[in-house]
Amino acid sequence: MARKRPGRVRTKNTNRRAPLLLSTMAPEDFNVRPGEKMSIACPDCRTWRRIMGEKVLKIREHCISDKVADGDKHTTCPGSDQLVVIDIDVRRWQARQDRLLRDAMPQDNRRAAQQFYKPIPAPASPVARIKAEDTLKSTRDAYFAHRDGCRKCVRSQHCQDGVTLARRYVSAIQTEPARRAARKQLDRQEQRAARKQSTAAAREAQWAKHGPDAEQANNRCTARTPGAVSEYRGPVLPTLPPNPEAHDRRQTDLGRQYAARRPTAA
Fold it and tell me: Which of 29, 107, 204, 241 could form a disulfide with 247 if both were Cys (CB 3.0 to 4.6 A apart)?
């Protein structure tokens, strides 16, 4: 296999012109992509030619006429051996060129950088393998619907799906009382929460109506006369009975009655 050699400048001659700056040319008139062979449109003959060299870049020597093989005279283009200077940001130029190529591409030929393939929908699972909330009605309907359409489920015999549906139906029958109790408990909790919410709303309305008056009454300070009883304690109550002698006789009689009720010791 032939080895690919990089293009080298085999002569030190130039066309004695000022170096050609890529910043003065149109971005689409040259190609300096990394990893590709650099080329440029000759400013004189407007044909695409290679840029030779590694450090010192020159336009490859070429002929003006393309029909030298047919007998035309070989005439060297004045743009041959033209010095080229890369004074642009290659990455920015490449990004701009890619964007221009993408915008110029027809809409029918465009496609996203990443392909998304719609997966094929999986086949539906049998009723016996569907994991859903097992209620008494759903399990009963599924079991009897399977029994009506299955030829293997006859009398007490069941197929594999019929056994699964029958077990679900029996399990639903056994857990139905607990489910009903839990449902009732949940309903009671919801009713209690609703009552609390209504009570809180009623209290908020009551406070909005009487709150300013109550706050004003609490903040009011009045001087009290010394020795006066507070209005929050009520009237002064007596600490002794009105008739001490009658009170003593009554207590004596009660003591005798309690002593008579006690059982006597053996």
Answer: 241
